[in-house]
């Protein structure tokens, strides 16, 4: 969770009736009551991808990035007839990228990838993640 803010308006401590566990329980109950009203959204990590490929493989690589929900930010030519493609891609889509890039470019492509920020997850992916979490929770309760 990011950007979570809670304000306590009233409370008191009494040496006989108050305990650490009582305050923790009150915080948990407040959290559970407030979350549905806050309209939460799932966030997914997004990274910056820089792919260096020969010119002849540009179309295949850009098409693959589009399939992975990537946004191409630019292309820069470098010496030797190669291009550096800069894109932002969700990290969830990058699991098999090394293998796929090697297959697309006959082992001539290389890439670097690093985390940039979190973005809202698309509605379809949110629904899938929520359904998986509910199924996991139901399985644990059995």
Which oligomeric state applies? single chain
Relative strand content: 25-35%
Structural class: alpha+beta
Low-confidence stretches: none
> pLDDT average, as an integer?
88
Largest sheet: 4 strands, antiparallel
**SS elements, strand count:** 4
Helix content: 25-40%
Going by CATH, the architecture of the domain at 43-120 would be: 2-Layer Sandwich
Shape designation: elongated
CATH level-3 fold name of the domain at 43-120: Alpha-Beta Plaits
Query: How would you write the strand order of the largest sheet?
Result: 2-3-1-4
Order of helices and strands: HEHEEHEH
Rg over CA atoms: 23 Å
> CATH top level of the domain at 43-120?
Alpha Beta
How many H/I helical runs?
4
Distance between the termini: 27 Å
